[in-house]
Design goal:
about 180 residues; mainly alpha
Length: about 180
């Protein structure tokens, strides 16, 4: 159980200062952006689009990254058994599965569609949606700030794999792919 350490005091203080400072009706909707039925269809659409445009490797990498999210998050939840900010009797809050789902779904989707737009808006939208999820979870009191941060850090290698696959072309690994004309 995560019950001591130098980061827990500021984590608890920040949580106490932020929880319920925004109406629950707002923070609940922000948190819901990390639900599987909301986030995963966004990634699925981007995967279908990329696969249709000849980027099956990138689409597959994004799907694999999403499939690995529970494989990373669930063992940590069980191992740490960290209680929640508003539910000290319940455990399994570290790391945040909703944040991990949002990060991989939205940022993965942005990595898949960005080569076709040649603009930064897919990444900006993905960052806003992922950030809104994280903020909603903290403000609602469903996760500590460190739960959310840990999820983002855990998903970084998964997203780096998707980024690599999105850049790769058959026989030309590491070189940027040109969008089909």
């Amino acid at each position: 159980m995560l019950v001591c350490g130098p980061l827990l005091t500021p984590d608890h203080a920040l949580s106490r200062a932020l929880v319920r400072t925004v109406p629950d009706s707002v923070t609940e909707r922000l948190s819901d952006l990390g639900n599987i039925p909301v986030a995963v269809p966004v990634l699925a659409l981007a995967m279908a689009y990329a696969a249709r445009r000849g980027r099956a490797l990138a689409a597959g990498a994004a799907g694999l990254a999403m499939a690995l999210v529970p494989a990373l998050v669930i063992p940590f939840k069980e191992w740490t058994a960290r209680p929640g900010p508003l539910e000290p009797w319940a455990t399994g809050y570290f790391p945040s599965g909703h944040t991990a789902t949002a990060a991989v779904a939205y940022l993965g989707a942005a990595l898949l569609v960005r080569p076709y737009t040649r603009r930064a808006w897919p990444t900006a939208v993905a960052l806003v949606l992922t950030g809104a999820t994280a903020v909603g979870l903290i403000l609602r009191g469903w996760h500590w700030p460190l739960d959310v941060l840990a999820s983002l850090l855990m998903c970084t290698p998964l997203l780096l794999g998707v980024a690599w696959a999105a850049r790769a072309r058959r026989g030309e690994k590491g070189r940027p792919a040109q969008p089909p004309k």
